[in-house]
Design brief:
binds zinc ion; eight-stranded parallel sheet; globular; alpha/beta; binds D-xylitol-5-phosphate
């Protein structure tokens, strides 16, 4: 047993059957449900937004882990929180660094956990001044925008330094190209939350796939 948080990404689910596909992972060991919000500006893809999060909240039993890949996230966090997000992660690259503390406090005052994420080209050192304000750091291990991409090993190498400077209960999450092999690499480097989309949803045995990420 360990305390790895597995957060299946519904980006790889069937969008016409989200209730079925969320139940599938919830019944088979998921801890959180990862919801990828993309705006076509911050990333070159458009996915889902506030009304969908609100609908998911009607049936989801597990916390909604909302990953905002959008510009001006500060404009929308209140709406996402009201819609039912439990964890709100925004991108360092999408905000004014001077506002990060205030922004994290706002997210927490809305009753959510606050996460900050960095893209592959962003150095982990930029996060050091803000680690005390966040509950989670999300280290992207692919360029954000699409599921099914290949894991970038150099991104995982950012984890130990984040662990070194982060508080003891900081959650370090990885997202992109996570499978039963890359999950081990990330866990050994200090990650304790794993997002996986295609690996889980394309597997024939979802329970086994989720279990295989933890050990
Ligand atoms: C990519 C998203 C991921 C995506 C991961 O921008 O943030 O959450 O769903 O997909 P896989 O696990 O297929 O790489
Ligand atoms: Zn994501």
């Amino acid at each position: 047993m360990n305390n790895i948080i597995v957060s299946p990404s519904i980006l790889s689910a069937d969008f016409a059957n989200l209730e079925r596909d969320i139940k599938l992972v919830e019944d088979n060991g998921a801890d959180w449900i990862h919801v990828d919000v993309m705006d076509g500006h911050f990333v070159p893809n458009i996915t889902i937004g506030i009304p969908v999060v609100k609908s998911l909240k009607r049936f989801a039993q597990k916390p909604l882990d909302v990953h905002l890949m959008i510009e001006n996230p500060e404009k929308y966090i209140e709406d996402f929180a009201k819609a039912g997000a439990d964890i709100i992660t925004f991108h360092y690259e999408a905000v004014n660094p001077d506002k990060i503390e205030e922004f994290c406090n706002k997210i927490k005052s809305l009753g959510c956990k606050a996460g900050i994420s960095i893209k592959p080209k962003t150095n982990q050192k930029v996060l050091i001044p803000y680690l005390e304000f966040v509950d989670m750091v999300l280290v992207m291990t692919v360029e954000p925008g699409f599921g099914g991409q290949e894991f970038m090993h150099f991104c995982a190498q950012k984890i130990p330094e984040i662990r070194q400077y982060g508080k003891e209960d900081l959650i370090v999450q990885v997202d992109g190209g996570i499978n039963d092999i890359t999950s081990k690499i990330c866990i050994s480097l200090g990650a304790n939350s794993l997002v996986a989309g295609s690996y889980i949803y394309k597997s024939k045995d979802v329970k086994k796939a989720i279990e295989s990420l933890r050990v």
